[in-house]
Amino acid sequence: MIRFSIIGFKKNDPDPPRWGDCTIINDSSNYLVIDGYCQIGTTRLISRLKDLGVKNPVLFISHAHYDHYYGIRKIINDTYFAPKALYMYDPDSLGDVSGDVRSEKSTMKAIRNEAQKRGIPVKYLKNGDHLEFGEIKFDVYRVQPSYHGNSDAYINDGSLVFYFPDLRYLTSGDGSEYIGKLCKDNGLKPLCIKIPHHGNNCDRSQSKILWNLGCRYCWDNDISPNYTQFLQTGREDCIGVGMKYFNCIGDLDFIFSGGKAIIIKDGKRTIYDVPFTGSFQTGWNRQNGHWYWQNEDGTLAAGWIKAEWTGGVNWFYFNALGEMQTGWIKTNGWWYYLDPDTGAMRTGWLDWNGKKCYLEPDESKNEGHAYCNETATIDGETWHFDSDCYGTKMNGVDQMNMNGIDISNHQSGMDLAKVLDQTNTDFVIVKASEGLTFVDKYCDKFYQIAKKKGVGLGFYHFARPELNSAAKEADFFCRNTEGYFGQAIPVLDWESSGKKNVAWAKEWLDLVYKKTGVKPVIYMSESVVNAYNWKAVADAGYGLWVAKYRDYNADRNYDMSTAGKKPVVKWWSFYMMWQWTSAGRLTGYSGNLDCDVFYGNRDQWNAYVKSAQISTGGVEVDKIYGYVSLCANLPLLRIGAKCNAVKLVQMVIGANVDGDFGTNTEAKLIEFEKKYGLVQDGLVDEADWKVIMDWLATV
User: Fold this and answer.
1) Phi, psi of 556, rounded to the nearest 5 degrees
2) What tens digit of pLDDT does each residue of 296-334 get?
3) Residue 375's closest CA among 364, 383, 367?
4) Residue 260 clears pLDDT 90, i.e. is over it
5) d(CA 506, CA 540)
């Protein structure tokens, strides 16, 4: 694998220090630096090389203009580096004349002397030279202008041209007005060229020659205002004959591997076929601080690959650019942990942040995925894993669980405060509304008593899909319970005669989520769950509260010894709550009660309450940036939200960055949504997140 790297400039870089014409070329063991930059580019160039641990680069200078030799000269005189060699043309070949040529000769001799003083071998280049550095193989051309040797000689036209025949790639230091003719006369057939730094030298006639030779891609790397006319002429000529153009505002990489070239620009990549004649290494390959895996056809692996590594065979994961990943990753809805040193997928127990996580060791059961939101028996012990994949050992099957009741106007005579004082009730869920006309008059009375007692809270809407639209019922529910969101878990009670209408339920859940920023839970019986296709609801992350009774005999004070077998459901990997009886009896009340068990502690309960502001999938909101499939997992944000994710949004949209989603943030967000063609609703939903993350990737 061979990589050509261009350290691009930024639009706000000052001029002229951003001029330059540098290319870094490397394989697995060699780094070539062709020409340099002025001040800003040189700082970035040296920093890049040091970050990569490159101490022995091979240096090239095409000619003695400041924006070409300055960076190379800095490397020569930096004691961190011990370059293998400096390649240049012989300055004595210029003769002893005045003007540009005399200045060129003097500067090149001075650079040569500095290199020799540091013990760096200096080697002269001439037309027709063939050089090889590992996989990097190229031919050298130096175009001498017809008036060379006169005082008016234009040294840029005499610069070096390097052609990589295996890659069909051509680069040059400034280049020549005869670049197309050069290729034709020497039988070169470049597929991609760097537009000469003085772009007007590559005029339309030369561009046509290049196109006829098969050239289809071009790029330049100078956005200096002083060169705008030069470069614009060159790029317009190349584009005019049909070439694909890339500029270097920002970094640009060409990765040549296995018959294809990957062009990476602004975090995006384009792939085109290159007729390679050479052979390339397969398997592991390290480039620019990243490990890659080359397949037998030479392409870079992406996704999961099972490969050999020190210690045996294991699974490894590579992103869309082919870079091996480490640490936590989320793919296809599951979390995996990759060893931070080797990248190998871990299995079994993992200690993380002082807590226990468990990674599936069985290859037949989605090997390596982290247990999340489920209870499992491991080595004879029962463990519960929360939404962040952290496990807690349970001495009894239900040790971590919370017990509670759901009530409505049917329990109008109950002294709730008395019941809560005399029993171990951990939560209360109250009926709030039904259809479009009913609001339970006992709802707020029960709600306020339970709130004062400090127990967990929930509130539900009894759906009537056979009578009304989901949109109207969602609006009715939200209007009548506005003050409860953020304090209690909202629930859709799904048990009327229209229960087969899954799409209606999904629409209601989505609308309530969009209006409030909190994901509701859906309640239904085991038989209803298994009778219809709820995949879309489960995949959207809406929790399940399931009902199943063994019988209708009285069960006292949450004694579940006669509760019977737990529900078994499709679609959901776990259910967060089970209504196990409708004949429960609690001290302080003589009537029947619906009794429920919630699988989790108060922290997990509160996670359902405030689902817009909690961590998602084991990673805090402010740490989640960087994952490929993150947008669907980021929280819905609206007025009232306070979290680090809000700060990120405020930074992008130009609002005051304080983490508090207020009216100013909403106004700025609507402007942002309008600019990018989004729905102007003042809500940061999945579509907004995608645009925000795409924007961040460009800065």
Assistant:
1) -105, 135
2) 655 677 889 998 876 678 999 998 777 899 999 988 878
3) 383
4) no
5) 9
Token digits for 298? 């030479």
DSSP tally for the chain: helices H, then strands E: 16, 37
pTM of the predicted model as reported, rounded to 2 decimal places: 0.43
The CA distances from residue 473 to 37, 405, 450, 520, in Å, are 65, 24, 26, 14
Rg of the chain (C-alpha set): 34
Report the length, in residues, of the chain. 699
Question: Among 488, 471, 514, which residue's Cα sits nearest to residue 430?
Answer: 488
Q: Where are the alpha helices (DSSP H) in 320-459?
A: 416-422, 443-453
Q: Between β-strands 303-309 and 334-338, what pairing exists: parallel, antiparallel or unpaired?
A: unpaired
User: If phi over 0 gives left and psi between -120 and 50 gives alpha, with beta otherwise, what is residue 659?
Assistant: left
Is residue 518 exposed (0-12), middle (13-18) or buried (19+ Cβ within 10 Å)? buried
Using CB atoms within 10 Å of the CB of residue 312, give its burial: 0 to 12 exposed, 13 to 18 middle, 19+ buried.
exposed
pLDDT band for 145, please (50, 70, 90 cuts): very low
Is 609 within 8 Å of 597 (Cβ atoms)? Answer: no
Contact 357, 391 (CB under 8 A): yes
Q: 469: Cβ–Cβ under 8 A, 6 or more apart, which residues?
A: none
Cβ neighbours of residue 418 closer than 8 Å, sequence gap 6 or more: 588, 589
Show the DSSP H helices in 441-523 as ranges: 443-453, 470-480, 502-516
User: Which segment of 71-75, 114-118, 330-334 scores lowest on mean pLDDT?
Assistant: 330-334
Cα–Cα dist 558/423, whole Å: 9
**378 forms bridges with which residues in the sheet?**
381
> How far is CA 454 from its chain centroid?
40
Structure tokens that stand for 510 in this block: 């989505």
Q: b vs e for 171-207, b when ≥16 Cβ sit within 10 Å of the residue's Cβ?
A: bbbbbbbbbbebbbeeebbbbbbbbbbbbbbbbeebb
81 vs 45: CA distance, rounded Å: 13
